[in-house]
Every structure is written in C-alpha cells, then in structure tokens.
Design a protein that fits this description.
The complex is a heterotrimer.
Chain A (H helix, E strand, L loop, with lengths): L1 H4 L2 H29 L2 E2 L6 E2 L7 H11 L3 H8 L1 H34 L5 H13 L2 H12 L4 H9 L12 H26 L2 H9 L4 H29 L3 H6 L7 H10 L4 H31 L3
Antiparallel strand pairs in A: 1-2
Helix pairs in contact in A: 2-14, 4-5, 5-9, 5-11, 6-9, 7-9, 9-11, 10-11, 11-14, 13-14
Chain B lengths: L6 H25 L15 H6 L3 H34 L6 H13 L2 H14 L6 H26 L3 H8 L4 H30 L2 H6 L7 H9 L5 H27 L14
Chain C lengths: L1 H7 L17 E12 L2 E12 L3 E5 L6 H9 L6 E6 L2 E2 L10 E4 L11 H11 L4 H14 L15 H13 L5 E5 L7 H18 L2 E6 L2 H7 L2 E6 L2 E6 L1 H6 L4 H6 L4 E11 L2 E6 L2 E5 L10 E6 L5 E3 L9 E11 L3 E8 L4 E7 L14 E5 L6 E3 L2
Parallel strand pairs in C: 3-8, 3-9, 6-7, 7-8
Antiparallel strand pairs in C: 1-2, 1-4, 4-5, 9-10, 11-12, 11-14, 12-13, 14-20, 15-19, 16-17, 16-19, 17-18
Helix pairs in contact in C: 1-7, 3-4, 3-5, 4-5
The chains are: A mainly alpha, B mainly alpha, C alpha+beta.
Chain lengths: ~300, ~270, ~375
C-alpha cells in the first residue's frame, strides 16, 4: 500500500519485530560462531579470547589472532562427536520413516470420515500437542519402566517370562519420538489431502482406474507437498532432540543434543558446545531452507 | 466415490487415538493411586494432590511458569501480529527475505541451538540470568508461531475490506483497530494460546536461560523425573493436562459459537 | 441489438445541470496519467474529462487498466506520471480516506463483523458527525435502497442483491462528489442484474450524483451510461455516447468489442461527399459513412448483422447486393441469426427479428439467398 508505507507508524510495524529478531535471534548466532572459535578457559565466562571494544584496533587484531579452529578439529578427530552426529541422523531418519508409516494412514483415514465429525477428530489429534512435551515423555516412563504396566501385562499374559528392559533402549527412544511427533506428521498430510478435490478421484474412476490405482496415481502424488512438510517438520527437530533420548534412552550412545547439553552443563566447555551447535546447524541448514521455501509458497503463493 | 467410514479408516483412527491417549490416560489414573509405589494399584485417593499443594518448591515453580507464560505470550502476540502485518501488507520491503527467515526458523530449529545461542548472548551482554531472560527467550521462540497463524488469517480475508474502510474515511491506524483487528481476533487469540502453551511446555530453552531463583515448572518436573517416577509428578501432570484440555475445548466451542468455519487450533504445518 | 434499443428508450434527465454528456461542470480530469506495475504499463498517458452529474462507463476487456484507473481516482494507487484533478485541484497527495470520492467494490467489501446499519454508518462515524444526524442519514439511505427492516442483519445473512444494495447505500450515505462502481453487477444473476441496472440509473438521476462505473459488459455500459470510454491496453480507444460507440465505432477494435459485427475488408475506389465506393471480396459496395478514407486506402466496412436484409428473392437494386447460401441458422427466440456463405467464400451474419411464430421457416439451411443493406447502414473504418 503506497499511501500507507510512507508513514513512520507503518514502518514501526516492520521495525519492532525485526529489531527483536535481529537482537535475540541473529546476533546470538554470530556469538555462537565466535565462541566456537575460542578456547576454554578457567574464567568467567569460561572462554578466551574476549573481545575488548576499549582496546580498539589492536584489540581486534589480538582477538582475531586468538581465534582457532581447534574445536572443529576435535569434532573431526574425536569419534565421540562423529558417532553422535551419525546416530542423531540415523535416529531422525528412522523415526521420520516410522512417523510417515503411522501418520499417513491416520491422515488419510481422517479425510474419509464423515464431514460432520472431521473437525472434532482433528482437534483430538492436535490436543496432545498442546499438552506438555515433558509430560508426554514422562507418561511413557510410567509404562515402560521395569515394573511398569507394559511388563506387568506381558508377564500376566505369559508372553514374557521375566521383565523386559524397555527403558534405556533404542525401542523406547523410537516409541517416544513417534508418540511426540505424530501430530506434526498427521496434520500437514491431512491438510493437503483434505483440499484434494473429490471429483479428481471420480474422474479417475470414470476413466477406468480402479480405486487402489487411483489412490496410487492421484491421491499419493497430490499428497506429496503435505508429506514433505510433515517429514521436514519431524526430521529437523528430532536431529537435535534432547528430552526424549535423555529420559527414555540409554547412556551408552548419545544423540548430538545430549552431547551439547553435557559439554555445556557438565563439562563447562562452552567453545566445544558452540562448535557442536554450529556444525549441527550446518547439517540442518538445507532442510530448514527447503522448509522455509515451502512455508513461503503455501502462505504467500495463494495470493 | 464413497465417503462413508470404512473399517480401515475407523481402525486407523481408533489405533492412532488410542496410541495418543492411552499413556496420558494411564498417567491420569495412576495420579489417583493410593499407593506410593507407582506400579501397585491400591485404590482411589487424592493424597498426591494434597501433598502437591504442600510442595512449596513445586508451587513456586508453577507460579513462575505462569508469569513467564502470560508475559511472553502477550509480547510475542503483539510482535507476531506486527510481523504478520509486515509480511502480508507491506509488500517487498528491504530485508524481507532475512525477516521471513528469522520468523520461520525458530519453528523447527532444535531447541538446544536456540537455547545455547540465547544464553551466550546474555553472557556476552553481561545480563544476569533469571526470570527476564526466560521471558525474552520464550518471546523469541514463540513470535514465529503467532506470525504464521495470524498471517494465514490475514491472507484469508478480502483485502478490499480494508480499502473500503479507508475509502469511507478511516485513516490506516483506525482501519486497523476497527476493521482488521476484529477480523483477525480469533487468530490473534489462538496465537496467544499457542505461545502460552509453548512457554509453559518449554524445558530446554528455559534450562539454558534460567538463573538463580527462576526455576520453571518443566525444569522442576524434569529434575524430579530424572530421579524416577513419583506419584506427585503424576498429579501435577494431570492438572496440567486438565488445564490444557479445558482451554482447548473452550476455545474450539467458542469458535464454533462464533460461527467460524474452521476451529482455531493451529499447529505449525497444518495451516 | 436490444441494448441499443434499451438505451434509446432512456429518458433524458430532468434539469439542465445533470443533462446530456459534457454539458455539466468539469469535475474529474485525468491528465496524461501513467501507471506501471513491475515495468509494464497498466495505464498509459491517459487523459479524460468527466463532468458533474454524468454517468460515465469505463468499458474494456479484463486487464485493460480500467480498474487501475478507478483505483487511482479512489487513491489506492498513485500515478507514476501525470495528474488527477478533482474540482480543479490536484489530489495526488491526498490519501484515500480524505478524498470526497467513494468506491463500491466488486466484492462489495462489506465488513463481516458489522451489521447492515453499522456498515452504512461506518463512513459517517469517521466524519465525527452528531449521532442524531448519523441515525437520520442511515435511515434515509436504508429507505433509498429499500432495505428497511434488515438493518440488524449481518452481511452473511443477506442475499446477493441485498449485499449489493448495502454496499451502494454505504457509499451514497457519504454523499460523495464522485461514486466509483467497480463491476457493481458482476456478482448478481442475470435477472437481478437487469432489474438493478434500471434502479442504478434511477438513483443516479434522482440524486444528481456523478457515477463512474467500470465494466467489461458492453450491454451494461450501454444501458447505464451517458458516455462510454472504451479502453484497451491502458489507453482510451474511444469516448462517446452509447449510440455513437455502437453506430460509429472509430476503429476495427471498438466495432468488434462492442456488439456483433461483420467486417468486410476492401480497398477504397473513390471517396466523396456521398460516401465511398469500396472494392471487396463480395463485390463493389457503397457506404455513406466514410470518415477520412481516401481512394486507395485499405479499409474495413463494419456492418451490424441486424442492418442486413436477407431474402430469397433477388432485390431490385443492384447496390450493396450480395449473393450466398445459408450455412447455419442460430435461433435465439426473439430473433434468428443467419450465417451466409457468399459466393466469394466470405461468411456474413444477418439477423432478423422473429415477428411471427416461425414454425415453418421461409429461409432454411442451404437456401440460396440475397443479402442487401442501405448505404448508410455500415461505416468505413480506416484503423
């Protein structure tokens, strides 16, 4: 709006959120990047060199001279880090696959339900997302622990002779992931399938296509944008997941989010934690950008 | 095409919902268990709720979480609504790409990264960590969610309605408050609710940005949970689930009463 | 063509001020206005005067720039070049909310959260008028558009026609200097559209307001407007009264855009005071309205189908006589359109009013027929 954008009030609409995000989202990343090039020190804050604005040009030169890639070298040489990255990517990929296998049928089934009750069912799928993440993970500890409900049931039914160690295992991690992220997979797929024009399937049938083939040739291809959104929406956060592997998983193999957490809180090695974060961000930047492009297209392409 | 519910649909949805709700249901039931042993059923009792209300540390944490949530959700809603207006109504301003990037990134960025970076900012700027740093962190986390919800609503209504208001003599700011805001109000409210829920829920970012005397409810619960399952935790979790369920059901009933076409139940990716 | 008849039947307006085209005071002036959208011009160096009390129609295909022109007058777009004057004053810097101009949107743009009464009162509240005056004027406006009793309904509880009238009342109540109507009838069904047309004309005459309407529907433009501006690719191609536009189009493009027409291409043999002789594929034809055509020009003769006679017998006069064979007949109820393939291979359309109940057609498929027309029935187009 040409007559509107000229005024200072209109500019404020952009400037306020922009300034906030610059200060509390972009600048922090630059700081992370800088600290990842620093070294640990027994000081407060526990890293050096510190950039001293008062020292002027000489201060800047000293500062740059003090930077090192040592933290990054360590990431490559120490197998702990490499293993964790690999494990995170594997867990994320497998979890996302399971989510897709579980989520797509649910999303598809939702669209097949009578129109009248669909909104209510969708709300029921979303509702758990609104309850605390932590509570949902905790709920599984109740069930999976050694003398928990699952083992009690298995023993009572005679399927197992002795309690199975469900907790602190990969199984528990995958259960937790699928459980926590299921709404994120179901909803984008449902949103795409719901918009699918019923007459397309009628046209396919009219042209001699049996239902299963129409599903494969019409429904699936048209659902792909939703599938892609769901996959990204699950994959990206799972790679950096902390709570689920920490509470449900074992301590022998760590995901990268846990490594970062321990480097930071237990080892007080802030530069190492920063380097881990920077590399993690680099791994995820491509899927994040793809996701953003999809967001832009769905939100702004409709104009 | 048949639009009836087939056995497959009913089975898929039934299994899906059972999977989603069974663990929570078990948790709720066991919160009323009389026994301290979480696994042994010893009859109904509300003793854990009574004990919970004597747990001062837990009550303090809940109070802090509530204040953080109210404050951060409100600020995030204002900033997020402004950002949505900027994206939808301002056309191509300078730095728009960076702006939209910063809006959408926190929606999916792993929380450990956001938390760490904010903490390092506070340290670098020598800001004492505590209540206010958590508020700032939660605002930053939730702005994008509000923006996406409000943006979808803004894109959904006819632009000429605003032009008509201006044509009839209402200046831009007045147009916003008399026409635009009432029309996007459901989305703004939904955005606020989501921001509030996310703030109440957050453990990772709060852990990074917290300081002495600012233990939020999730931090408190987490430290208890690490030590094992306790009936008091079941009780507090049940209360939180009940609050959320009531809030969401009330909101969707309200939107139904107002004759909204779709319930205001936003989740990223579902818009 | 019914539209032409409908318009010719329209009574001239009472009073001198709002009367025939161009006689009122100059109200709106576009001065060499240009508007570009991402490089390409939507409106290009367009100049136009509109007078007080006039009902002016901007007619053109979609994308011709007519809506952009309207939006510039309302203040939603700013001209890149040129000026827009209202009452002799340049209004370029005036924001839409301070212009004494109101617009009725194609989508009506009713405020969905306000009821009819508040929708209509909205504009008056912006002027901070006393409550009593607002109430009185809203009541008056409701009566004007016959919506009494519906003032407490929300827009979604109204029918399409009722919404249209609310949108109209909302503008009229402001007593604008100019009322802009962007495709005001497009969303209505056919029957309602025709009724509303007459209501609009009545309202405009009664209130003595200046209306500018944008439409792509030529019937609508002809039946409503005192003057029509035909637009194409951001330029005004012709500005004239509806009969002039229809009977004397100034170019091939206008002739083809407005109404049905036969275009017969040919070369001018001689041109004089009593018209021009033209050699065409269907023989030598004489047309009185020759404009500035000179001997040797390549021209087109525009001939409306209803101005051609069709008969089985050979007409006595040799002038403007074309022989052919009926190739197709379109029966439209009130009239029939005959497609005649001339011996030269050109297809010409001729229409006749069905004055009797034609169970047995005098002329039918594959009949040999003669087409003929008077020298003043067609017009020679050089452009």
């Amino acid at each position: 709006m040409s007559t509107q954008s000229g005024t200072w009030r209109a500019r404020l609409v952009v400037i306020l959120p922009y300034a906030w995000l610059l200060a509390f989202f972009l600048v922090p990343f630059l700081i992370v990047l800088k600290i990842s090039l620093s070294q640990t020190a027994l000081a407060q804050p526990p890293y050096e060199p510190l950039f001293d604005l008062g020292a002027g040009w000489q201060g800047l030169k000293d500062f740059i001279a003090g930077l090192s890639f040592e933290n990054y070298q360590r990431l490559v040489t120490d197998s702990l880090y490499l293993d964790s990255y690999l494990r995170s990517l594997t867990v994320a990929a497998l979890s996302t696959l399971m989510l897709l296998l579980a989520g797509f049928p649910i999303a598809y089934a939702l669209t097949r339900m009578p129109r009248r009750i669909q909104p209510m069912l969708v709300i029921m799928v979303i509702l758990p997302f609104w309850t605390s993440f932590l509570i949902r993970v905790y709920a599984w500890i109740n069930i999976l622990q050694r003398d928990g409900l699952l083992n009690q049931t298995l023993l009572a039914l005679g399927i197992a002779d002795e309690p199975v160690a469900w907790l602190a295992s990969d199984t528990a991690i995958y259960i937790g992931m699928v459980y926590s992220y299921l709404p994120f997979m179901v909803l984008p797929i449902y949103a795409t399938l719901e918009k699918l024009d019923e007459s397309l399937l009628e046209a396919a049938a009219d042209l001699g296509c049996p239902p299963w083939k129409a599903f494969w040739l019409v429904t699936i291809p048209l659902a792909l944008p939703g599938v892609a959104a769901g996959v990204l929406l699950c994959f990206i956060p799972i790679v950096g997941e902390f709570v689920i592997p920490d509470l449900l998983g074992g301590s022998d193999q760590l995901m990268i989010g846990q490594v970062m957490w321990t480097e930071f809180f237990s080892n007080l090695d802030w530069p190492a934690a920063s380097a881990v974060a920077v590399v993690l961000l680099c791994l995820l930047i491509v899927p994040i950008v793809i996701y953003q492009q999809m967001q832009l297209r769905t939100l702004e392409g409709s104009r | 095409m048949r639009r009836g519910a087939s056995w497959f649909s009913i089975a898929a949805i039934g299994l899906g919902l059972a999977f989603l709700y069974l663990p929570i249901a078990i948790l709720v039931i066991y919160s009323f268990n009389a026994s301290r042993l979480v696994t042994v059923w010893a009859g109904w009792s509300t003793r854990w709720y009574v004990e919970l209300f004597h747990d001062q540390a837990m009550l303090d944490a809940a109070w802090i979480s509530l204040r953080v949530g109210l404050l951060s959700a409100t600020v995030a809603t204002i900033l997020g609504t402004l950002a949505a207006l900027a994206l939808v109504r301002m056309g191509r301003f300078r730095g728009r790409l960076l702006f939209s990037g910063m809006i959408y990134a926190p929606l999916i960025l792993p929380e450990v990264i956001t938390g760490l970076s904010l903490l390092l900012l506070f340290v670098a700027a020598s800001i004492d960590r505590g209540f206010w740093t958590i508020v700032i962190a939660h605002i930053t986390l939730t702005v994008g969610f509000v923006t996406v919800i409000v943006q979808a609503r803004l894109l959904g209504f006819d632009r000429s309605i605003e032009e008509a208001a201006m044509d009839l003599g209402a200046p831009p700011v007045k147009t916003f408050f008399t026409i635009t805001l009432p029309l996007i109000a459901p989305a703004v409210a939904a955005g606020w609710m989501l921001a509030f829920a996310l703030s109440l829920d957050d453990l990772v970012i709060a852990s990074f940005t917290t300081g002495p005397g600012a233990t939020t409810l999730p931090i408190r619960i987490y430290s208890e949970v690490r030590l094992g399952v306790k009936p008091e935790i079941n009780a507090i979790c049940t209360i939180m689930v009940a609050v959320v369920a009531i809030g969401v059901i009330a909101a969707s009933l309200l939107s139904k009463l107002r004759g909204e076409d779709r319930p205001a139940m936003p989740v990223p990716g579902a818009i | 063509m019914r539209t032409a008849e409908a318009n010719s039947g329209r009574r001239p307006k009472a009073g001198g001020s709002g009367g025939a085209s161009g006689s009122g005071r100059l109200l709106v002036r576009f001065e060499a206005v240009t508007k570009r959208f991402s490089g390409s011009a939507a409106v290009e160096r367009l100049s136009l005067d509109i007078h007080e009390g006039e009902f002016f129609a901007l007619l053109g295909p979609s994308g011709c720039g007519k809506t952009t022109l309207l939006r510039m007058l309302a203040g939603f777009e700013t001209p890149d070049e040129g000026r827009i004057l209202l009452d002799g004053k340049d209004i370029s810097g005036v924001p839409p909310y301070r212009r004494p101009v109101n617009m009725m949107f194609q989508s009506y743009a009713l405020f969905p959260h306000l009821n009819v009464e508040h929708n209509i009162a909205f504009g008056l509240k912006q002027e901070s008028l006393p409550k009593a005056e607002i109430a009185a004027r809203v009541k008056e406006a409701l009566a004007l558009v016959r919506l009494e009793g519906l003032q407490h309904r929300k827009p979604h509880q109204l029918s399409g026609g009722q919404r249209q009238r609310v949108a109209l009342a909302r503008c009229l109540v402001k007593r604008p200097r100019v009322l802009l109507l962007d495709e005001p009838l497009a969303a209505l069904d056919r029957r309602l559209r025709e009724d509303t047309r007459f209501e609009l004309v009545d309202l405009q005459a009664k209130l003595g307001l200046t209306f500018i309407i944008v439409t792509h529907d030529q019937e609508e433009a002809m039946s409503l407007a005192d003057r029509i501006g035909v637009m194409d690719h951001g330029r005004l191609v012709q500005v004239a009264t509806p009969p002039e536009i229809y009977e004397q189009p100034n170019s091939r493009w206008v002739a083809q855009f407005v109404g049905d027409v036969n275009m017969i291409e040919g070369k001018v043999v001689s041109a004089g005071a009593d018209g021009a002789l033209i050699d065409s594929a269907v023989g030598r034809l004489r047309v009185k309205q020759a404009g500035d055509a000179k001997a040797g020009d390549m021209v087109a003769i525009a001939l409306r189908p209803e101005k051609l006679r069709i008969s089985c017998e050979q007409p006595a006069s040799e002038e403007n006589r074309i022989a052919g064979q009926v190739w197709d007949i379109g029966y439209l109820g009130d009239m029939s359109v005959y497609q005649v393939k001339t011996d030269a291979g050109v297809t010409i359309k001729a229409s006749t009013a069905n004055m009797t109940r034609l169970i047995e057609r005098p002329i039918t498929w594959d009949d040999r027929v003669w087409l003929s027309f008077d020298a003043d029935a067609g017009v020679v187009l050089t452009r």
